Amino acid sequence: MTSQNLSGGERLPQERRVVTEIPGPRSRELQERRAAAVAPGVGSVLPVYVTDAGGGVVVDADGNSLIDFGSGIAVTSVGNANPRVAARVKEQADRFTHTCFMVAPYESYVAVCENLNRITPGDHEKRSILVNSGAEAVENAVKIARYATGRQAVVVFDHGYHGRTLLTMTLTAKNMPYKQGFGPYAPEVYRMPLAYPFRWPTGPENCGPEAAAQAIDQITKQIGASNVAAVVVEPIQGEGGFIEPAPGFLPAIAEFCRANGILFVADEVQTGFARTGDMFACEHEGIVPDLVTTAKGIAGGLPLAGVTGRADIMDKVHGGGLGGTYGGNPLACEAALAVLEEIEEGKLTERARRIGEIMLPRLRALAEKHEAIGDVRGRGAMIAIELVRPGTKDPDPELTAEIARRCHAAGVLVLTAGTYGNVLRFLPPLVIPEHLLIEGLEVIEEAFAG
Ligand SMILES: *Cc1c(COP(=O)(O)O)cnc(C)c1O
Questions:
Q1: Which cofactors does it use (predicted)?
Q2: What is the number of the ligand 1 atom nearest to the C-alpha of 296?
């Protein structure tokens, strides 16, 4: 895996380098300034102030070089400041930075939509719209689904995460910190059980069919299938803890949707764009969603998101019913076109698989040694471990935070997740050099050793 050409990493030494405590003095100074200026409701996983990033590293204001196992939450999959992305954005910035697509359009928006229509699952005719964030994409998918079906109810699942706007926080399962005190929530949202193999009462083998049957029974009995506009589901739950729904669950739900005129909306905001080893995670079980929401990995960090769907659904909404001032901004569209070239030319789906092939066996071996690791899971470069109190399945969020803290102190940027806050999740850039991936894993192993 020689990634230097693609990653932008040639500009920065691809090394872990810890030269101060983390965060160091310069970052701590900035953190004080921040406390006086920035509302504390916006948190940071690790308050090191970044001055540079590329390939598999993030460099901070004190000169520390951290191994990046986060990619800005699955965003900089092609590497931070990827040279092709940076060049396209610079060139566009010199020509025009904004017209508003709803005022006077430009080609790159169309080209991004053509690409989304081409690469999302299914070879039926599709249309796309572009917006600014994952939450905005999910909001629009629900608007479109309601319009197209003339129905109101929206079904979501336990452990789901769909954003922080009023509707999308309603769709999100976890109260603290996403919903606490921010109600009342949007109406007509119904939550169903999810096939969570590690925590399914009758065991992982029965999980897929049993969870699907429960969800379908509840939808039928509690809402009535004919009232449901859409089922919105992440093919792998992201913030909820990288839960891979047990095999058979998603196909059964998709089939139920098809039989009942319900639109199946795949929220691929975190799982999309090669992250899981497929271009989209739905492909793993051959699911063809009616609508797909995308964001995060789409544009190398520039704010962009999309809704892509069946042409007959997307074409229904009246002119002017969808849009927004900045949606499909020309800088972001150029970035997205560059990202897609990098993913396809660089065969990043294969790289994602390779990352999983390296990480999963090592983490499974680590789990053999440490009873605190209850589960190792994920696909491609979307990998997680779930921490429990030894001999039980009781979540251990304290140990999770402590392991993350040790990794950070040693110069590896890892993230936590999970309904119970007990999941360490790993989202390395797909272009991370292999030696950094392995060194990052060694640091995680040392963190467990104490
Ligand atoms: C991050 C995320 C969102 C929200 O995206 P934002 O760009 O933060 O609004 C929605 N759905 C999923 C699955 C996500 O991971």
A1: pyridoxal 5'-phosphate
A2: 7
